[in-house]
């Protein structure tokens, strides 16, 4: 692994994910009524959603489309200067650049670019802080809005698919200045998966090898809950609401995250996760390598990874 | 509040606290058998302790003394260059400088200096990564050592007392480059308490106003558990072992941390805490102000702060 | 203590409590929207409420009144024969008898009688099993209705006040055939409190000494949650909704129950509780005696019992 | 289903299980050091174990043998009279009777008999209450002994295998006076599994169809934890100690129990379970029927039941 340690990060954190849905109303109902996000606003094509303690206006932009998958991924820069530094690096990187756009309801101007697999990223600094009103004002002034019973607290990470994880890793290190915390090295020498972060979180983006023949696909988007118990409770809520539970609750061996994966109505996979008190504090963290043999043991407590987890991504691959 | 945002941090994280005890054997028994830390090593004067997932050799240095309180506080720098930058700033700051020392069993050379109230700090980069052996090797390679049933996962923060929190804040911002996330503003205009961080944690050091007439005193040292349930269980363990439970479990209004405070045998206050999924992700976080009226409401769920919490610190003040 | 062991019980369980409110709309809003009960039905004077896994149509009958407190307490008999046996015992007991009534929306005919302090009890066998419809049908057929996110699961117990707990104990043993599991013996020889059960639950009714000069007053009504975490979450929900949190979450020394007490809008005290896996299995259980000195230690983890807990009951005492 | 409701029970609760092991030292180490039981005593052939809040001297009798599986199952009667009533019923039942034995370190004389599949039962009233000494005395006098960090609280149930569950059900209803709370009806009309109780617990004994060709085999023995979190924590403890985790943590659809199954060193399957606040309170409970189609859906949150769960029992079947 390239040594990515001891650097400072220009990007502060994952800001938002634009998710495409061809069942907009059903997806919006799922995210607000069942999954527990709040609707901050809507424009002609999109609903802007956030968890109750996300400070930005939106961390999930749900957009009407004739397909599913990810529209774009937004990272917020640490400062205006850091944004400019990062833009310059990207412009000189040789990766495909889309250039500046005006932003939307949730943030100001943003610089867009693309990874070699077709996923569109943007970085921005100017953002819209969410301002709670009325009953949505939090009882405690250090939380962004009213606590909701069994809902996730903040956006956590997303997982993208690519046909060449090593190449994707080069993109993440170059364009986002991300650091690898854990990765899978297959017996054939390829990297099977890679977990990245730009801060003390254990990861904010993961990339795993595309095994379904698709391009620019999404594996899943994840929000974080305060406690593992919230996820056990959510499992009952999903069950009660007829949501397809793909796998979990269980604990990942990689990253040690307690997880639950479901499919929202349009087929996009979404996760609820809890990392406990785990953070990456060491500035010289040594990326953890997992071998193919390690992976054969299943997840932490022995659950075998189910087949659809390896093949299902959005949008579906046309046959 | 001074605007401390949009800066990058030279310090990576709180590394360790040296705690003094005049009941060394009892304190060591408490920390290893009841509180759940692991003993990494010992030298003539000190025991080196860590939580099961702390990556450094020691995060608590328990030292034989004829008094109690804090010996020194160590922060790890983000890189050798960041360490040099920070040393230069401190040398030019006018604060009292002790200079370089050779380190100890747990880390390499460190630069020491002192706040105006007598608390000694050190910063260092070279450290000793803990290497688990035998039964202590973790089943999952991404954790530092074997999981212990009901024990805290990593060092979290400490709380110091000072007679002038505004002055202490200037010290922290100047010497450590820390950022304020929340603070108390008393009706008399003084800052009653201030919570600092050098990373995405909500705080790694707090300072509250000394009300007992002491100098350089410690309020408490805290380790983080994965779940709130670990703290409820720990309360039963403390009860069973005759430990003095001062207050909790309950939830702080400030910072929203779930807490439990006990006194170790020599009288130093130690806490177990869980912050849920809360992190400070915004690079332009606006410090939260709590008024005296806010504080009158008690903790989050209404518990009145007990008197000893305002007056007990270590070492005790001689009358 | 009288030996109440080795007997079989004619009564199966606490069935329901009728709670009086002089703020009917506010109370109903609280119980359905905040506390998490479900509305089974309404008649002219009352709303019939139940927790999501209560099998009967109602476990809380909320009744419009010009006062607060308890209307009556209903226990379900184990069989028609057991009901007849019990009625005969009560008729011969000398306690005040109200006689048979026709029941209400939630159960068939019931036999009413009264303790020496004015609390009205009824026993019945014919009941109305709740039948869930539509979205309220549970995903798992072994639960009574749809799981609700952070809501209590079933009715648990109530606590009444009386000026002579020893006399109340005689009433409970005689009329209900209840068994004492734990009790407080004051230094003056009086029983300060007594916990009763007619099954394997640790208690379904408690009686504590009236210290406010009232008659026939209610101390609190309690529902049980599946996990302690549900209670911590509920505390945040109560906080967010401006509910008066009186004390908790904490763990009782007596009975070891994890508790949280709040006041509903009309002032009746209600609790959420979790007893963990504790049950009274021993047929020859020896009642646990708590002394006044034991009580001075506070609750399990040291919390001092707050003053209002000793004095507040409903209805309030007129001065 | 035969109507078993409205009856009173002569038996109070499941008292203990005698488990056979051909790896006595390893099994004893597992149960005391990893699974979290306490050793009450030992005689030449057996170790007597209990959970920290079991009131009897032993709830698991671990016996040296040249095989594995269950030695016998003990139920405690509700009174001496109830014991005599039950003995008379059994003597007249036609089932195989072993007669009275003198008991052992944990209880007095017991009456033994046998089901048609070779499982040996005994019923007794005279028992040995556990008396904690020294450090094992509980801090709270209403618990049986000192709280242990991550350990189960009390014995819960066992699961036996039989080639004809309908026949086994007749045995349980006749000899033990048990009540069926839930059962599986296969498409071929046979009962695939049946859950029994003699009190308010949802079940204390389950019987599922033998699919491995064995006789008198044990499927598993289970202890109850206070919270689901204890089971998640135990999973990490089992992982750390190299214990074979067969399946879980997950939630059963049948009975709704949160479960985790592991194999102790000799191969006997043991479970940790948490039923939340669920109890069977209704005296006229209608047994819940699960069809083969229901079972095809997997456990509550969709986990498919793994193959070994259907075939592994102890002792193993000789080929």
UniProtKB/TrEMBL annotation, chains A, B, C, D:
Residues 13-126, 154-275 form the VOC domain. The lineage of its organism: Bacteria, Pseudomonadati, Pseudomonadota, Alphaproteobacteria, Rhodobacterales. PANTHER family: LYASE, PUTATIVE-RELATED-RELATED, SLL5075 PROTEIN. Keywords: Dioxygenase, Oxidoreductase. InterPro entries: Fosfomycin_Res_Enzymes (IPR051332), Glyas_Bleomycin-R_OHBP_Dase (IPR029068), Glyas_Fos-R_dOase_dom (IPR004360), VOC_core (IPR037523). Pfam families: Glyoxalase (PF00903). It comes from the Bacteria. This is Catechol 2,3-dioxygenase. GO terms for molecular function: dioxygenase activity.
């Amino acid at each position: 692994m390239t040594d990515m340690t001891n650097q400072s990060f220009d990007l502060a954190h994952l800001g938002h994910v634009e998710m495409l849905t061809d069942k907009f109303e059903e997806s919006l109902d799922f995210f607000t009524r069942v999954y527990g996000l709040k609707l901050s606003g809507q424009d002609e094509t999109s609903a802007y959603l956030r968890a109750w303690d996300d400070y930005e206006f939106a961390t999930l932009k749900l957009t009407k489309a004739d397909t599913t998958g990810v529209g774009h991924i937004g990272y917020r820069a640490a400062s205006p200067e850091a944004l400019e530094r990062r833009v310059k690096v990207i412009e000189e990187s040789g990766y495909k650049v889309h250039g500046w756009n005006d932003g939307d309801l949730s943030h100001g101007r943003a610089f867009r670019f693309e990874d070699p697999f077709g996923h569109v990223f943007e970085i921005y600094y100017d953002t819209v802080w969410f301002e709670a009103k009325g009953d949505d004002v939090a009882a405690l002034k250090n939380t962004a809005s009213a606590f909701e019973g069994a809902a996730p607290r903040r956006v956590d990470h997303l997982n993208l698919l690519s046909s060449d994880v090593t190449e994707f890793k080069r993109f993440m290190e170059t364009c986002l200045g991300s650091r690898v915390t854990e990765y899978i090295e297959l017996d054939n020498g390829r990297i099977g998966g890679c977990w990245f972060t730009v801060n003390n979180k254990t990861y904010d983006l993961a990339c795993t090898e595309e095994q379904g023949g698709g391009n620019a696909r999404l594996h899943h988007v994840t929000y974080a809950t305060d406690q593992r118990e919230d996820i056990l409770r959510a499992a009952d809520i999903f069950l009660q609401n007829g949501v397809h539970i793909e796998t979990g609750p269980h604990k990942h061996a990689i990253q040690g995250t307690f997880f639950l994966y479901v499919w929202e109505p349009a087929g996009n996979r979404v996760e609820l996760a809890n990392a406990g008190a785990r953070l990456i504090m060491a500035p010289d963290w040594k990326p953890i390598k997992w071998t193919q043999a390690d992976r054969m043991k299943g997840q932490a407590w022995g659950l075998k990874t189910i087949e659809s987890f390896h093949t299902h991504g959005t949008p579906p691959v046309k046959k």
